[in-house]
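haha ok so turns out i had the wrong file open the whole time. this is the CORRECT one, sorry everyone. sequence first:
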Amino acid sequence: GIFLKNYNWATLGCGVIANELAQAMAAHGRTLYGVANRTHSKAVDFAKKYGVTKVYDQIEDIFSDPEVDIIYISTPHNTHIKYLRQALAAGKHVLCEKSITLNAAELTEAKQLAEKNNVILAEAMTLYHMPIYKELAEVIASGRLGELRMLQLNFGSYKDYDMTNRFFNPELAGGALLDIGVYALSFARWFMSQKPDKVASQVKLAPSGVDEQAGILLQNEASEMATLALTLHAKQPKRGMVAFDKGYIEIYEYPRGQKATITYTADGGQEVIESGATADALFYEVTDMEQAVSGGQNVMHLDYSTDVMEIMTELRRDWGLVYPEEK
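then structure:
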């Protein structure tokens, strides 16, 4: 799309995602305007690497800089709400890495702040922005697959059994749910016609007390169901399967999917749909965010992020899993 102005983006955090953001922008002839990081030297190195104009001495300076339009937060989950409060209160639009907050109460607070300050708040959930999902939504709307019955989601990573790394460390809001489960739940929510109101689960906790492995069952009032299998200590394919009356859709590598296979029930015939590129995942988020900020259609789906956050909050309540910040 064509935007009235070139928005100044600043990144808070210099990790993997921030690097991907800078690379995605560079690939489209754009440069990040600013960078802030807890470890200042890392911000300096990051700025050199990507030609970023501004390096902030203190994290707080990113919020008070009048030149900054949109802040991308990609620090650990448990720091999000602190930075969201500051950024939104300063009147900055914010795209925040998933999981957007630790729990539903924090998200409600952030949403109220965004509304009060008249800014856009959104979660950086790649799959809401990948073209393949927008295309599949049209296929489903056409009716040729019939009614949605069931979804099946897998996500398994093999992480070293080190309780101090961010995946297993409760001090960094580790665990399968907030790190990888959020993708599976977001996928389910994208295809379901309404929010699941029935949630059941089994969990295996790691020695550190966070969720290492979980099985989750969802159902909504339309009787659409989903089963999710998550683990941080066994590799699984990132496979999403959506079963309808007249066929099913399969997507591999679904967080940043670019290809879907539809298998029709009647004759077993297959149709392959390819749309968008995995490599451009971050740029799709950027363009959708800029569209929302410029007053265009808001396709950021904070409503879905809210539903997912409420489900995750309920699950952790069932598991008795409380992060230090919540005590």
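Residues 302-319 form the longest helix (18 residues).
again sry for the mixup
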